[in-house]
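ingest -> validate -> predict -> emit
validate: passed (alphabet ok, no gaps, 209 aa)
predict: started
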Amino acid sequence: MFNLQNSHELHHRINTWYQHHARDLPWRRADCTAWGVMVSEFMLQQTPVNRVLPVWEEWMRRWPTPASLAAEDSAEAVRAWGRLGYPRRAQRLHGAAVAITKHHDGEVPADYDELLELPGVGAYTAAAITVFAFGRRATVIDTNIRRVHARAVMGKALPHKHLNVAETTLAEELMPQNTAVSCVWNASVMELGALVCVAKNPRCEQCPL
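emit:
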């Protein structure tokens, strides 16, 4: 197991693994807009990547900016959501697009607190947009990240059913101080949890730890 004293080794191993094994996803590319990242975060909530990809691509072709979505009726957003499930996410994303158009000159805000004020944006989504869209330091905590932390640092097979204070504190303490490294760290731990350190039948022989 690792701890805070050897966290630099933990960062190095997982970030290096990510550089060689990260999936090429359109919302991770340098030319993806903050809006594209935001749309992906809404769609990826409780929905696997393979289902999100075609819908995200069509959505971005049709509504490449918040203003273009805000100009549509929310019912059209729900129809375009298709079979992603949890259609309220589409309604909230439409509401966020309206708010961005009205209050932020059509640009996704980079400020964490301003993001939290948007419909459908909670602590996780605000942190994810802050990190993945704007390259700023924030602590992203999802199920995949919690599972890697539980196994690699806490010595537990699975994290608690619900995020607790101890897990939040650990995630914050493990966050690299360097902003650029911290952004990679958020993505790399999430990817490790999604591809290798999965809940059932983890691929331990592929794990960099």
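The longest helix spans residues 179-195.
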